[in-house]
Amino acid sequence: MTLPIGTTAPDFEAETTEGKIKFHDWIGNSWVLLFSHPKDFTPVCTTELGALAKLKPEFDKRGVKLMGLSVDPVDNHARWSEDIKETQGAAPNYPMIGDTDYNVSKLYGMLPAAISGDPLKRTAADNQTVRNVFIIGPDKKIKLVLVYPMTTGRNFQEILRVIDSLQLTAKHRVATPADWSQGDDVIIAGSVSNDEAKTIYPQGWKEPKPYLRIVPQPK
């Protein structure tokens, strides 16, 4: 089973396209987007890796590090990177884990514990559950999990929107409503009493229902 939100992201050591890393040390005080792929040289993932490379400045602005994963070896990732640059206009500019022993995939519930053998003999369909997104906070806790099918490319604009919400709600005692985007009104968190809310929001709030208290997005 995929790890639940709120649990500590498992630590691990792994070989990546940028050298060996120890995950928690690599995170440091940053946010992290860890995203996985079932196999190198697969079509949907090729488009995703290129799209994410182009969007990396947006993640940098938010203090979010990017880390990819595939069970294929790191040298395959390097060859795949050339194809990604040729077809998508940008090569991965972030590390990619070569999870050839399936350690990370198992730790994060993306493959069964019993899986073993040569990763190069496995097909993308064998690894189709390795299509996950984990957003991890500076506290090393998992904040969001998304699992995509092989035929549906990831929406990185939505992932950026979620990160904006996570970072806002981590800083302020608010929640974001459906379809919220940066600058929209937000909801006072249910954990905030009306007495507290009067101190935090002396200008008041809109209250269509007692449990629905709406205020402008905090700065």
Automatic annotation (TrEMBL):
It holds the Pfam family 1-cysPrx_C. One of its GO terms (cellular component) is cytosol. GO terms for biological process: cell redox homeostasis. Residues 3-168 form the Thioredoxin domain. Coiled coil: none annotated. It comes from the Bacteria. CDD domains: PRX_1cys (cd03016). The active site is at residue 45. Keywords: Antioxidant, Oxidoreductase, Peroxidase, Redox-active center. GO terms for molecular function: peroxiredoxin activity. Gene3D superfamilies: Antioxidant, Horf6, Chain A, domain2, Glutaredoxin. Belongs to the peroxiredoxin family. Prx6 subfamily. This is Peroxidase. It comes from Bradyrhizobium nanningense. The lineage of its organism: Bacteria, Pseudomonadati, Pseudomonadota, Alphaproteobacteria, Hyphomicrobiales.
